[in-house]
Amino acid sequence: RNKQRLTHVRQTPETTSVQEGDTVTLQCSLLPKSKESSSHCPSDYNVYWFRVGFGESHPSIIYTRKNSNDAQNRTCVYQLYRTIQNSSDTGIYYCAVVTCGKILFGDGSKVAGMYKKLYLL
User: Fold this and answer.
1) Is the Cβ–Cβ distance between 9 and 97 less than 8 Å?
2) pTM
3) pLDDT tens, 7-38?
4) Residue 18 to residue 37: CA distance in whole angstroms
């Protein structure tokens, strides 16, 4: 039933700058075909998060199954909370939602390190 109505994934934020110790919240929203469509979050789903570090060729896989319903927008929202320990936690994070026999991919969220300038006196 939901197979025909759920068509794409939106990831937010597109880009965020972080410092070591910051916690970022990445969001992956499963969206219906149109706002007029009445859709409910599927009861059977898996959400995968992938991180491709800057300069790396292989992704790291992070799995999460957190969700919440946003009845007003009729979306399913999956969140990833990540504390940035060091530069190896930065990169581009992608989500993939597996439901109704389909795999729906997000466009990615770029998590970039922001470094403090040191001034010598």
Assistant:
1) yes
2) 0.78
3) 789 999 999 999 999 999 999 988 876 665 55
4) 37
**Mode of pairing for the β-strands spanning 109-113 and 15-18:** parallel
The pairing of strands 60-64 and 45-52 is antiparallel
The per-residue DSSP string of 52-120 comes to E-TT-SSPEEEEE---EEETTTTEEEEEEEEE--SGGG-EEEEEEEEETTEEEE---EEEEE--PPP--
What sign does the CA torsion over 29, 32, 36, 38 have?
negative
- CB < 8 Å & 24+ apart, contacts of 54-58: 54/90, 54/91, 56/91
Q: What is the mean pLDDT of residues 54-68?
A: 72
What is the C-alpha to C-alpha distance for residues 14 and 68, in angstroms, rounded to an integer? 20
